Amino acid sequence: MTDEVVAAFGVHLRAARGLSEHTVRAYSGDVRHVLAYARRHGVAWDDVDLPLLRGWLAAMVTTHLTRATIARRGAAVRAFYAWAVQDGRIARDPAVRLVTAQPGSPLPSALGVRPAADLLEVARRTAADGDPVALRDWAVLELLYATGARVGELVALDVDDLQGTDRLVRLFGKGAKERIVPYGVPAARAMAAWLAQGRPALATSTSGPAAFLGRRGQRIDQRQVRTAVHRAAQLAGVDDIAPHALRHTAATHLLQGGSDLRSVQEILGHASLATTQRYTHVSADRLRVSYLQAHPRA
């Protein structure tokens, strides 16, 4: 019965809330975790009460899990029981008053303008011999930095999502929300080289419309993107970064270059302006360092 109800919850997350497969797996795992805790205490999933849920949270604190993980698990359980009530599976919601500590909001890491340029130049030079995978990695890095796309958005791209003539790309963000994002000339050059030379060399009869392909002609995954970013960072001699750092870098550089907050919000696909505002702190911190170094009365 437990497996059935968790599976039904997963269907709800995909169909009604449009969450990614990664998020669905995480939430389903979180729900299984609390239901296993309940079973160990002799409580069925539909008899769980608030004290038991609080005990579950307290037990996780002692295992030294991060606040972010505990907060996510609390959110998953609240979503699960709210759905169970709405779906008529239980009469009351035991998690409606469940409160978890909110995760901290550290400033996102970002490369400086020069290191970012070095990273992309290394990718370009590596692709100069026409190797299809190197051409792909160059295009991937340029597009991540040019558009601030999430890695999941990039690997999901189809060829038809690219409007090369107008230098626009259609991205599908969280909740399958669509947005159109422009990109610049360097990214356009990398994409043109990939689509004209790299992709045809890797494409097979089963490639479908995927914009970015692996060596076997299938759509690339996030692991391959991480490998490409790590490799380029190592060759460029810059700080080793995750692909998501290129999204942070794009946002920071847009703001440093004078873009307004609302425009950056639209480019990144943030639902809340408060999320975008985190990047103003990054820009302000760097401005403060520059001021202290340069102003005679600092």
Can you describe what's shown?
The chain has 298 residues and is mainly alpha-helical. It has 2 domains: 2-86; 113-244, hpI Integrase, Chain A (Orthogonal Bundle), CATH 1.10.443. The protein is built from 13 helices and 3 strands, in the order H-H-H-H-H-H-H-E-E-E-H-H-H-H-H-H. The chain has helices at residues 2-15, 21-40, 50-61, 67-86, 113-126, 132-147, 151-155, 185-202, 222-236, 243-256, 261-268, 273-276, 278-294, and strands spanning 162-163, 168-172, 178-182. It has a 3-stranded antiparallel β-sheet, with no helix packed on it. The N and C termini lie far apart (66 Å). The model has no long low-confidence stretch (mean pLDDT 87).
First CA to last CA: what distance? Answer: 66 Å
Supply Rg.
Answer: 23 Å
Which ranges are low-confidence, i.e. pLDDT below 50, for 5 or more consecutive residues?
none
CATH topology of the largest domain: hpI Integrase, Chain A
CATH class of the largest domain: Mainly Alpha
Mean pLDDT: 87
**How would a crystallographer describe the biggest sheet?**
3 strands, antiparallel
One letter per element, helices H and strands E, the order comes to: HHHHHHHEEEHHHHHH
- CATH superfamily (homologous) name of the largest domain: Intergrase catalytic core
Strand numbers in spatial order across the main sheet: 1-2-3
Helix content: 55-70%
Number of domains: 2
CATH architecture label name of the largest domain: Orthogonal Bundle
